[in-house]
Specification:
Layout lengths: L4 H25 L2 H7 L4 H29 L1 H21 L3 H18 L2 H14 L6 H29 L5 H8 L8 H21 L10 H21 L1 H32 L2 H33 L2 H24 L4 H31 L7 H25 L4 H16 L31
Helix pairs in contact: 1-6, 1-7, 1-9, 3-4, 3-5, 3-10, 3-15, 4-5, 4-6, 4-9, 7-9, 7-12, 7-14, 10-11, 11-12, 11-14, 11-15, 11-16, 12-13, 12-14, 13-14, 13-16
Amino acid sequence: MTEVPAVRTARRRYVTVCALFWLPPGLAMAPLVLLFTERGMDLAAIAGFYAAHSLTVSVLELPTGGLSDAIGRRPVLAVAGVLNTGALLLHALGTTAAALTLGMVLMGAGRALASGPAEAWYVDTVQAAAGPGAELRTGLARGSTATSAALAAGILLGGALPWLLGLGPDPGARLTESTSGLVLPLSVPVLLGAAVEIVFVAYVLAALREPPRPPVTVRSVLRGIPGAVLNGARSAGRDALVRRILLSTAAAGSALAAIELLMPGRAVSLTGASESGAMLFAGLACGGFVCSGLGSQLAPLLARRTGGGERAVLTALGVSTAGLVLLGVTAAFPRPAALGLTGVAAGFGLVYLGLGAAAPNENTLLHHRVTSDGRATALSVQSLAQQSAGALAGVIVGAMSPGPWPWLLTAGILLTGTLLWLRRSGTPGAPGPEPATRHASRAHRPTVDS
């Protein structure tokens, strides 16, 4: 079947938006904690900054999804980019706890606003051009690949820039001196991220065209958001497939939270020093995003080989579960170190490879169960499930003694989410288009980082 040109254009623009949005967080990921430390913040204060970010995302996740469904995808994404620009500038230049906390709040608000609108725009555009049964998986997979590639490239560049500024005549020191300490070498990747955010806002405003929506007022928007949120909550209770997607997404969130919490310490135990452990973790994180991108790219092939999206999710989550089990085994038998390092790298890669392959297939199934005016809300519900489960899992895993059991507990949680997919829902799962089923007659169904 010949592909509609509008579909190719929408896919290209969606991939570009994904890359531009996630490159700045990647640039800031490596230097941010060290930058806060250079500003005189202790670990307790830094933990408070991240708590402010998480709390902001959790509070705003559903209302901002409803906002996107009410006023459109493009304005919400543009505002998200503006907020993220302000957040990165505060992080790069702020010297007080209040300024850095405000930066985290702005970043949390930007993250909540951006959770869903780009993907909802892509699905809306493709279905408008090719019909409700249009093939979505390829574009969603390429968007996930672009996200992973942007994060991996950002981490490498964000880690390398401060180091490069210290070479030779030490331009980093001169930069710090000329700005009276306002701009540190560690600030440079964060400032670069702010510049990329400006490009992101400009691209969103220029490229993400939408059909006109009915005029709205602030009062009507605020009045409509609670209804959109309630419709999002109802969808999980009414549709077994949506419930399954949310539960398996929550299980994946638990796995990611455990990795983020446990892996830095595991890396230090493998290398014997905090500095080399930090370098090892950065390398593993970059490799993880590469594996996630590879998994996303393979998602359509996996669906074809396994007989549909549901079987593809089952297989992909099974791979991630095996990776967590391998990480638990290497924690139980840490010697010899070389073998332990090989096992950690393999387990880490398997977790991200599987999660990368599962997400586009899950979201393809999800988009065929929701309508356009509830799509961004539905994605926000999904993101909230992932973050809430991850926060709870982080508390539990953090209270456990180091060793294999935290890994194996998380593997058990992910295995539970995997086994949900053993029973097929009856939704057509053939490769390619998966026809929308019954969503037109139901209430608006609502539908995720590291």
